[in-house]
Design a protein that fits this description.
With 141 residues, the chain is α/β, with parallel strands linked by helices. The chain has one domain: Nucleotidyltransferase, domain 5 (2-Layer Sandwich). 21% of the residues lie in helices and 24% in strands. The chain has a 6-stranded mixed β-sheet with strand order 3-2-1-4-5-6, with helices on one face. A hairpin with a 2-residue loop joins strand 2 and strand 3. The chain is globular and about 40 Å long. The N and C termini lie far apart (66 Å). The C terminus is likely disordered.
């Protein structure tokens, strides 16, 4: 039996779109596989999504607390990577395209996902959600 944790958009589930942002995803979907078949699906809200810092570490804790033995990720920062490795989870890299959880699980079952050993983005990746940049300079006309 394998339990795979996947970061997802929305409220999670098999038909939900996979989120490439591990620590900042909206939810996690946990898929239990037995003999290459889906036995159970559970969705859990990611309460770390809006954390000021440490979202990746907190997200990894959520994955561990829900019994995952493996995880499929898109972008993974160094802190989340270390936390997942400390939990002895096998990490797989999702392709860089928009897929549903079900599509990713099918790729996993077919053996088409690559194992990922470490982080693939810098610390604090994806923290900023806005494009403001504050270029006004505070000057009056």
């Amino acid at each position: 039996m394998v339990i795979i944790g996947l970061p997802t958009n929305g409220s999670g589930g098999l038909n939900e779109v996979f989120s490439p942002r591990f620590g900042r995803c909206n939810s996690f979907t946990f898929v239990t596989l037995e003999d290459g078949k889906i036995k159970e699906v559970k969705a859990v809200q990611n309460h770390a999504a809006d954390a000021m810092g440490g979202a990746g570490i907190q997200a990894a804790q959520i994955v561990g607390e829900n019994g995952a033995t493996e995880v499929i990720v898109g972008f993974l920062g160094p802190n989340a990577s270390q936390s997942l490795n400390a939990l002895n989870l096998k990490i797989f890299q999702a392709p860089n395209q928009q897929l549903t959880v079900k599509e990713l699980i099918d790729l996993y079952i077919q053996g088409k996902l690559t194992a990922n050993i470490g982080s693939n983005v810098g610390a604090h990746y994806g923290m900023s959600r806005g494009m403001g940049g504050g270029g006004g300079g505070g000057r009056r006309s």
